[in-house]
Amino acid sequence: MLLIRRGKQPALGLWSLPGGKQEPGETLVQSCRREIMEETGVEIELGPVIAVVERMFGEYHYVIVDFVAILKDPDSPAPSPATDVSDARWVTLADLTQYPLVEGLERVIRIARESLRAGFTIGLIDADGNGRDFLPIP
Is residue 134 part of a domain? Predict the structure, then answer.
């Protein structure tokens, strides 16, 4: 999976999934693609929604929508950290314990993995009210 080390608060120095603030007029899909590209230089195709997570940091309330994503080009260069990210890299599930992760992320990743194995995913109805056609997950 693609992990980033946060270069700013909240969770400065901890590892997380790439993502960020959705801009006005931007769909979740557009936001996800843009944020991953801005933070890592990696271009992706989105799969299904795999988790929706709430986090409270002080006065901020975050609602995080996690998608399964697939590299648009398997021969893409390695991720390169940018914007508010101090590092970006591919990490295997087996190596996950070697990284100081944001609170609750390891649990979300493991539950998502088991959900995918069981064939359970969540669809997304986009801003136009249409169902999204997702790529098949290998």
Answer: no
pTM here? 0.84
CATH (domain of 57): 3.90.79.10
Tracing tokens 């309330």 back to the chain, one arrives at: 61
The helix/strand/coil state of 101 is strand
Q: Residues 95-136: pLDDT tens digits?
A: 999 999 998 899 889 888 888 888 877 777 665 555 554 544
Q: Report DSSP state, residue 110.
A: H
In b/e form, how buried is each residue of 49-88, taking b as 16+ CB within 10 angstroms? bbbeeeeeeeeeeeebbbbbbeeeeeeeeebebeeebebb
Give all strands (DSSP E) within 36-84, no chain letters. 44-57, 60-71
| Total domain count, the chain | 1
Cα–Cα distance between 79 and 72 in angstroms, integer? 13
Alpha carbon of residue 56 to chain centroid: 18
Closest by CA to 121, choosing from 73, 74, 65, 42, is 65
- Residue range of the domain that includes 34: 2-117
In a domain, 137, yes or no: no
